[in-house]
From TrEMBL:
Lyase that catalyzes the covalent linking of the heme group to the cytochrome C apoprotein to produce the mature functional cytochrome. InterPro entries: Holocyt_c/c1_synthase (IPR000511). The keyword Metal-binding applies. One of its GO terms (cellular component) is mitochondrial inner membrane. Residues 1-110 are annotated as: Disordered. The lineage of its organism: Eukaryota, Fungi, Dikarya, Ascomycota, Pezizomycotina. Pfam families: Cyto_heme_lyase. This is Holocytochrome c-type synthase.
Length: 327
């Protein structure tokens, strides 16, 4: 679970050449209307048009306006002539660290103007325009944290379940140590001016597409909600204010690519003493396959196994002995 001191949400397709509009809408949305459900409304037709023809035409027209990579309607990056905003907002879009699966570029986040346009489209006309830039910064921050967590899952399990258990059986401390080692080696390469390890680069996951599903609570969120009703003192709390599904391209050891769906539940964690909001991101692979179920069991059960088997105590004793010998 990712816990940043600020917030953010899901990436956006790259900039397109004018005059095309750019798909945009804040994925961390409290909007109760899913874009597909909201958009697929029948339109008027001539009396000679049959109901079946009308439905097909309406659906095709609506789907043609949606980007298949995020299922969101296209929005302009320009300030609307009737916009109630009191200040001009930047049009520049920040490039994320999240690689795209369809090309060699990274996903781009929405500009503050796009974010504001998306909020207007969803009916939030009372949003202070001067706060939008901060909202975009929070939005981007959370996305980066979510992707780092997904990279962690992929680093552990993309090489195979045996590799996954080798890492997970060392507990969360072992996972953190492995992550720190990888980060140290990468920083060392960069400091020495050495090129990145191409084999490792090719194994890195890439984001295929994403979808906001705020009106569809995940099975885990529903289960926690039910447990909160039964045992509020232990499981009580606010439900997630949003849910996203991120579809990730995983490079398998044999060179093939598998699409893995990750579920992200967004929880509000209140406000810090400094006034900064806190958000919790619960990120895990969806239970679409038996392999995903095993991965989740390994990740969450590995730490319990590590402590129950006495491995953590043996490691602590070994460290104490080494320190005594050095002393």
């Amino acid at each position: 679970m990712h816990k940043p001191s600020e917030s953010n949400a899901a990436p956006f397709p790259p900039r397109q050449d004018a005059p095309r509009s750019i798909p945009s809408s804040c994925p961390v949305s409290r909007d109760p209307n899913h874009p597909l459900l909201h958009s697929l409304q029948p339109q008027s037709s001539s009396p000679s048009t049959t109901e079946a023809q009308h439905t097909t035409s309406s659906t095709s027209s609506t789907l043609s306006k949606l980007n298949p990579l995020n299922y969101m309607p296209s929005l302009s990056n320009a300030r609307p002539t009737d916009s109630p905003q009191s200040v001009s907002l930047p049009l520049d879009r920040e490039t994320s660290t999240i690689p795209r699966a369809d090309n060699d570029e990274n996903w781009e986040y929405p500009s503050p103007q796009q974010m504001y346009n998306a909020m207007l489209r969803k009916g939030y006309t009372d949003t202070p325009a001067e706060h939008v830039e901060s909202m975009v910064a929070v939005h981007n921050f959370l996305n980066e944290g979510a992707w780092r967590e997904i990279e962690e899952w992929e680093r552990i399990f993309a090489p195979g379940l045996s590799h996954g258990w080798e890492i997970c059986s060392k507990g969360e401390k072992g996972i953190a140590f492995e992550r720190a080692k990888q980060e140290f080696l990468a920083a060392r390469r960069e400091a020495l001016g050495l090129p990145a390890n191409q084999e490792e680069e090719q194994r890195k996951p890439k984001l295929v597409r994403f979808q906001g599903r705020p009106k569809e609570p995940s099975p885990k969120a529903r289960m926690l909600g039910m447990m909160g009703m039964i045992m509020p003192e232990k499981f009580g709390g606010e439900p997630p204010f949003d849910r996203h599904d991120w579809y990730v391209a995983r490079k398998n050891p044999d060179g093939t690519v598998t699409e893995v769906r990750y579920v992200i539940d967004y929880y509000s964690g209140g406000v810090q003493a400094t006034g900064e909001p806190v958000f919790y991101l619960d990120i895990r692979p969806a239970l679409d396959t038996p392999t995903a179920a095993v991965e989740r069991a390994m990740r969450w059960g590995g730490d319990i196994w590590h402590r129950a088997s006495g491995a953590s105590a043996r490691e602590a004793a070994k460290r104490d002995a080494e320190n005594n010998n050095r002393g």
